[in-house]
Description:
Helix content of chain B: 10-25%
Number of helices of chain A: 9
Largest sheet of chain B: 8 strands, antiparallel
Radius of gyration of chain A: 18 Å
Distance between the termini of chain A: 47 Å
Number of domains of chain A: 1
Oligomer: heterodimer
Helix content of chain A: 40-55%
Shape of chain A: globular
Largest interface: A-B, 17 and 25 residues
Largest sheet of chain A: 7 strands, parallel
CATH class of the domain at 180-405 in chain B: Alpha Beta
Distance between the termini of chain B: 28 Å
CATH superfamily of chain A: NAD(P)-binding Rossmann-like Domain
Number of strands of chain A: 9
Number of helices of chain B: 13
CATH class of chain A: Alpha Beta
CATH topology of the domain at 180-405 in chain B: Alpha-Beta Plaits
Structural class of chain A: alpha/beta
Strand order of the largest sheet of chain B: 16-12-14-13-19-20-18-21
Number of strands of chain B: 21
Amino acid sequence: MKTALILGSNSDVGIASAHRFAKEGFDIYLATRNVNQSQKNLANDLAIRYQISCETFQFDALDTEVHPQFVENLPLIPDVVISVFGVLGDQEQASRNFKEAARVVNTNFLGNVSILGLFAEKFEAIGSGSIICISSVAGERGRKSNYIYGSSKAALTCYLSGLRAELSSFGVHVATVIPGFIKTKMIGDMQTPAPLTALPEEVGEAVYKAFSKKKSVIYVRGIWWLIMLIIKLIPENIFKKLNF
Amino acid sequence: MAKLSSWGNYPLIEAKEFYTHEFEPLSDYIQSTETFIPRGNGRSYGDSALNGKVASMLGFNRILNFDVVRGELTAEAGVLFSDLLEVLVPKGFFLPVTPGTKFITLGGAIASNVHGKNHHKEGAFSNFVLELGLMTAQGQYIICSPTNHSDIFRQTIGGMGLTGVILWVRFRLKKIQSSYIKQVNHKAKNLGELLSLFESCNSSTYSVAWIDCQKGGKDLGRSILILGEHADLDELETTDQRNFPLKSHSNKHVSVPFHFPSGMLNRWTVSIFNHLYFHKEFQSSRSFLAHYDPFFYPLDKILHWNRIYGKKGFLQYQFVIPFEAGAEGLELILQKISASGFASFLAVLKTFGPSTSLESDISFPQKGYTLALDFPVSSGIFELLDELDQLVLNFGGRVYLTKDARMSPETFQKMYPLGFPTQPKFSSLQSQRLKLHI
């Protein structure tokens, strides 16, 4: 029986990914900062629906000191590590308040560097394993409206690319999953254009596809690849005057 | 804010929806929000799950316990029947009661005290509920059952979400040997023939009739009566059925991609459809094995079928009248509809057994015949339904709140005289319209 670890399992994408892998018969480790009743209920639900075993673990991306202990305490080394945690942060605050900026960068970038580095070491030693990590289109070019978040994801995308290159010769797979807008289940929330907005279940599907098809980089909605290509081609002199 | 409506697409309102999958934010929301209505998958037809503020329960969709020895399931309120079936059927269990769509939530099933084709034999969903978790107006969590907080337990079942937020439900399941139904279709030439068929077949577990409402005179009540029983293993016919006797439904479907032009469903197009539907059946009766999916949920194959009624939406009208009033009452009502010229696409007749002391004072089912009709929203339809209300009242019947979007408070009080003690915290456009909160 194979096991998948979900880092950030209380998010919509974390829940969707857990369902997708459980449906394929994976045992699931749910890891999140606050193992509350709804996480315990999710663990029960996955076990009953898909007849797998599911356990919950406390995991805080910011508490890098205890990451080695977190990895050692897992009953087994998972076959797949799926990292979906991250914070958007408050851009206005983050751009002028270093503490907020540090929280965003420490979570999204250094949190992953710490925990994925530990699993990379384990996987390298046994010569197998998959790491699937969610980055963002926001990391492809800094925009004034969210460049703190964007730069944390840019660093993450860059890190994953290097990690992939390093581990590929050891038979370890690293995938970068890049969603555009993700629809929260709340209607009347920020209205984003429907063709560019993916449901959490679609992101979960992309995560599974990245794993099963051994993808390196996958855009959840293919159109985003084209959009980001165009955005990256805009000369800086023009880009800095654009209002988005 | 965003546009929100339920399955009838009428009324369409501006609403702010709250969504969470965690308990703490929900409890905070309940305490800090002056008035709102909890909402499931929006499959009630009218305004009973609408308010300027609604709390979506779809995030609370987790199955908590499945006791195959006792045949009991515990799940959170936002789980869909379609998801439950995928878990239950392969293990040899079925929902004890199901309406004509599987895309409803468990919490909605409780709030509406849903009924199915088996009410005359097995009763409403209320007959199978063992206990439930409820969050009250103070954000307090209570567990209620027939012995614990028994009054609020009773008022919650069929209570239209007005007693609090249903968090989870524990209920009894039905044991099945296969996922197939032995179906028998009987043709009835008119209402008299149909009602005597119903009477002679009342030992059938499942029964429902589709009536062609366009027919008047001697053909009034031309219909097809559909009966069903769960098939045992030794009654399966094909190799595929025997190899996979507990196959659950597939998720394949087609979708109505946009709203049809209003007025496309008129008396002529509906007549043609009904004519074809009726003459599809050649013999006066026919038996065959059907999977539970087409038997219980024929319309679920067509996602967004409500769009065929156009952007203005449609009204469902479902009433029940006592058996004593049966033939005369149904005849009068069908005549009125046929004469009015308003086209009802679907007309579905079922029978109800007695109601019980386990359901709220505004729960719908009572012993008698129940007829459900669809009407596109158009001028004159509200007046027709007001007239039908009077006929239903005169025959000692009542109208189903889950489908209602237009009844007057006076009519409501006559139909449900016991009223309902309720707090203004949990209120819908319907409960406000019906003046349930004074």
